[in-house]
Amino acid sequence: MEPINIELVDYYGQQIAPRHFTDNYDLVQTNKDTAIYRRGYNFYLAIRFDRDFIVDKDVLRIEFKFGPKPKKDITRIPLILRPQQRLPDDPNQWGIALDRVDPNYVVVEIHIAANAPVGIWSCSLRTNIKGFPKEFRNFQVPNDFYIIFNPWNREDGVYLENENDRNEYIFSDVGKIWLGTSWYPQGRNWIFGQFDDIALRTAVFLLDKSKLEPENRGDPVLVSRAISAIINSDDDNGLLVANWNGDFSDGTPPYAWTGSKPILEQYYNSGGAPVRYGQCWVFSAVTVTICRALGIPCRSSTVYVSGQGSKNITKNYDAFGNLIEDNQSNETLWSFHAWNEVWLARPKIPKRFSGWQIIDATPLRRSDGIMRCGPASVEAVKQGFTDYQYDTDFVFQILNADISRIVVDEDSELGEYQLPKNGYQSGKKVVTKAVGSDDIWDVTPIYKALEEVNIAESNELSFELITDKVPLGETLNVTMRVTNNTNSTKNIWTALAGRSVYYTGKQVSIIDRRDDNFSIKQGETRALPPLSIPASKYIPALVDHGFIKLYAFGMVKNGDKNGQRWAEEEDFVFTQPLATMSAGKLYYKIGDTIDVRFSFRNPVNVTLTNCVYMVEGPGDVPKSIRYKDVPPLEEVSIPISFTTGRRTGVRRIIVNFTSQPLVQVTGSLAVNIVGK
To answer: Annotated catalytic residue: which of 280, 291, 373, 611?
Structure first.
């Protein structure tokens, strides 16, 4: 009797996908030969032979391999089919069992170890006649398959019990990244697109380019650490090039992106040429895509007032209230910084430190020689345990850097005067998108044991910086309120100033300043005349995200000597013009053309130049399109048409319009796509 020949092997990819919660992946929907399995679960192989399979005579061996140099029982899994064999009780062990035998078909059930490495696996088979192992037939399955993490399986290190959380942090393919300031957070809509065919391909491609060995790709702690490294391009030609200098002429401005898909396509299709450009919130958004595509629960979080460069940050002022810049120092306070949290078990540190872990793909500091950060336990950071892996000390610094403000005063005894602490402290607020809605969720109590700050109040005078939301194009008014709590009249000098800055805290230019000298009686509260900055003055000075740093300074004058001093600062961003989007219908069928109109009004009294709008949504969507110059105060109305994609349900369309000097005019619209 000759060994039996194998004619066909079927992974049952589309049939098994709902059981593995992978039926949303385009790779599965569009190709019946592609399978995506979650580890810790079972799948089936259907094998067709050229004759009837005889159970007690034909021997069937199946081998799964992973990586370029597979290692037995880790990345090379040999299995032999035995008629009475059952699947193993150990969830971390691979197994095989006979499901059924038809005349020339055999269906076997395979159990994937719950700690199996994630990525692309291959499958080969060998047959021989029992007792004659040297005469055999080989068959290489032409299609490989994917194994990804499994947050539904208790044995997986990414297990997430709550269904609403799984829906948000695994299934949700749209979301918000929070920018702006602590008192005016601005949510940017983002299409993560983790189920697009490019997402999982690129995720595996990136892991292959990382320094993580294949046998370690079953450890979600090490995989998430590798992701934080390979998303930036500083090592191994990773995904995105960082740029904070404001010159994006040889790439795409970070604020122009609307989702991850164009970034991933550009990178993958170029063979791994880093994409220009990203900033922290773009790194964070793309990290969400890669993690969710691989099955790791992930969210983007934003820290308002982020301490960078040191755990002790000093800001020096001269006697006139001017900030003294130190261009040699790395100590900065970012207005905001976006990073990620991934849900992981941490078996090598105390159990209470499992759960949300911070990873940060923005290239800020080298960890063990590589630009990466985390995973660092959120709970460990909150409790101040900074010795646990990984990079917990660095994350703690960002959230808890001590800020000192010093007035350099040659007339004082020590040559300087330390100002009391104010409300502008590192880690002022931490936010993320709420589960199941687009609302903002303040998660500061998860990160920090909140303490009250004694803010510049005493039995002398109290000062307060006052501002409000201002639409771009209108006059910015900033004022101070001073209260005299003493029993005598005081002579006061105050200064208010506005400077254009990058969101990283880098100073650009002084826009305007106002000084006042006045007397205030005991018990009196006075609102000072505002510093009024018209649009004609601030618009030419704005850079990047349009941040203005507001500074306030106050001092009690006691004859020839100076008394109580006070300083405050605040990050300020303008309200961007409201964009509207409309579609012709509420429901569309697969293959329909969607006609959308994006509209807004130029709010500034200058012509918008270098206009570009980017579109992202379901189906065949144009990516980046140049637009004509827009005269002052003119209405913009852009028609956009594209064909729906293959997936049904509520899908989101995002448009982002950028120009000089107006950036980040965004619109979002949800459409419902039903079957054919």
So the answer is: 280
